[in-house]
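Step 1: inspect the first sequence and its tokens.
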Amino acid sequence: MNGNAVFNNAVGKFMEVIQKALTASSMSKEEIDLLIPHQANLRISQFVQRKFKLTDDQIFNNIMKYGNTTAASVIIALTEAWEQGKIKDNDLVVLAAFGSGFTWGSVIMRW
């Protein structure tokens, strides 16, 4: 695979699906309390964090602990974020994933 092309496609799709979900929900990026991205690559997560101007407290990463756990990564990260008290009642939590076969998606939920 061409690493640069995958990186560029991943960050583009992450930002696109997050923005589409926010727009469809009549919400803005400033309302995000916590973003939990697919844990495939820390650099991708950090790039998306910078583009959305999120603080370190507004994004949850655990790839350093487990590596890429593929389809389970978002759910594992969501569970850990909740267990660590990083998600509070009424928080706006955004889940976003980009995976093999160049598939992607996002979910916005009010905790």
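Step 2: inspect the second sequence and its tokens, then contrast the two.
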Amino acid sequence: MMGRQPSRYAVHLLLDGGHRHVVHFPNLESFQTWYGETLNQPDAQAFVNVPINELEGEYFVVRPRAVLALHVEPLFTGLE
């Protein structure tokens, strides 16, 4: 028997100063690509774009060094 597959992933960003931001990705591979190409950069001072899923073409901009922690949560239901 095969286990359930998540419909998407919620990535919770804990930012410097206690701020939090949630980003949704359709699958784990798209999150890993975004993380590798944006957050995991040697220049932690440069700004990077964090996609805002509800607003097509708009971004939340943050410095990678301001991201203190990530929590990746698989979601098994539709967007609420």
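Step 3: confirm your contrast with the notes below.
Residues 28-39 form the longest helix (12 residues). The chain is about 15% helix and 40% strand.
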